[in-house]
Amino acid sequence: MSRISVYEQFERALRDILARVSVSGPAVCAVSEKPALRMAIAYSGGLDSSALLHMAKQYASGIEATLFAFHVHHGLSKNANAWLAHCEHECKVLGIRFEARRIQLSEKETSNVEESARIRRYGALGELCRAHDVDLLLTAHHLDDQAETVLLQLLRGSGIAGMSGMEGISFSHGLLGVGRIKLARPLLDISRAALEEYVAACSIVHIHDESNQDSRYTRNALRNEVLPVLAKHFPAFRQSVVRTAAHARAANSLLLELAAEDFHTCVEDECINLARAREMGDHRINNLFRYWFKIRGVRMPSMAWIEEMRRQVMCAAPDAQVRVIHPDVEVRRHRERLYLVRRHLRTALPEASRFEWKGEAVLHFPAFGGALHFLDSEEGFDAEWLQRQPLQIRIRLPGDRMKLARNRPSRDLKHHYQAFDIPVWMRERLPQICASGDLIFSVGLGADCRYFSESTASRIMLRWVPDTDFKTDTSRPEPHQH
User: Fold this and answer.
1) Is 479 among the domain residues?
2) At which of 233, 266, 291 does a domain end?
């Protein structure tokens, strides 16, 4: 592959990437009045990223975009300082804005250097992007990296998502942290050999990382000891593996579409309705559960774990209180509904806290995991009366009773919880609001109508909104007053 064709391939890939995304920085071009493109590359100084640096520089100059090069100094090699100096010098020669970030692995992280360094590296790159208002980060992953990634996932027993390999662009790359940063890989269709030819033809100076030869690292062992043998017997194996990854991505996309449809059918108040899920086959239920975990931001468990969870929640007796433990969450079943409960909620119960209301729209109570909203309402508490009361937020106490409707009797909270079908594990943490020692509002149930204002003065209704992204952890929608 010639030098020109390598650049043309890169240019075509980057042009397609830019067409798929809306990327802009704070600057504005005077002529077009359109936001100027600000992009960065992850620049280690090695052969791959050095080739990307030169190609990105040529492309950015042609479209008057602002280009940054971000370097992460791990401190793992005795040559790390020299590499940083090299990268800074090369960027100065090319007129590219350069910045480095130093990171240091903790003693705990050194037990898995390869993975820990990757996580910390992406975290640092995300910080640099946010600091410079960059929302498109380019990395130098190429065709050989893609083949290695797919083979590693296959050897680890990954499912179809793992064998899909790397995407040309990731719209939500969690390792980069919060923000709108997109991660793009414009070299994925270019082989390492082609990049070597390009670098040699352009006389591009680059560093050599000695750790790439250390076969104690899994990827290096595959690259240095296994792949040469494969290449000897199957010369085109890289292209074949990458084609397989493309098929896997297409299949995974269809599975996600199916899971989204099933989720829409089965979700009910942020829960999974198991009666509806039972109409599907086992594999389709597993697909639904994986999608549920994915959109809730829960680390994806193994297939064996998913299988066992499905068996427990689907086969248990109707009145069984099923609880399946995951490092991030608890999967709880209540009757025919399935809940995700964040495990951080299984801490000590919060202590009662006194407060006053001075007309604020919202009061936050972090210890109770939410905020109390004060809303204007046709029926509710007298606003002036509520402001005069010494208020308290606490958990349920024995003897707590409420009257939720004028035509219904006062009952204890246990009976109300049962009537509203609130799961047992939620009840102990649901906040209660008291005025002058009297219970006037219970989260998940509503307000005590005996304290409603009879006058035409301004009336207030309370509403509790949990901080957690799982609404079903501590609340249910407030019922209408009858």
Assistant:
1) no
2) 233
